[in-house]
Hints:
By secondary structure, this protein is mainly α. The protein has a single domain (9-81), classed as Nucleotidyltransferase, domain 5. It has 3 helices and 2 strands, in the order H-E-H-E-H. The protein has helices spanning 11-26, 44-53, 69-81, and strands at residues 32-35, 56-59. The chain has a two-stranded parallel sheet. The radius of gyration is 13 Å and the shape is globular.
Amino acid sequence: MGKLLHTKEDVGVTVCDVLAMLERQSGLKVRCLRSDNGSEFVNDAMNIFCHRNGIIHETTIPYTPEQNGITERAITVFFEIV
């Protein structure tokens, strides 16, 4: 399922696609999305998407990667593979 993106601008569309796929496969609705404070996640398009779908968008405290440990580890693994 992992997909490398070419630019940060691809994040919004990809997140929407992945969330839709996960909802279809699991039969459950996404209720909360947690991300860092990167501009690819904190923008009008992501806010509109979350608002329209009833998703609470939480952001982590800046400079605390330990709040998102699983993702940080996955990113490290992907970089080692590449």
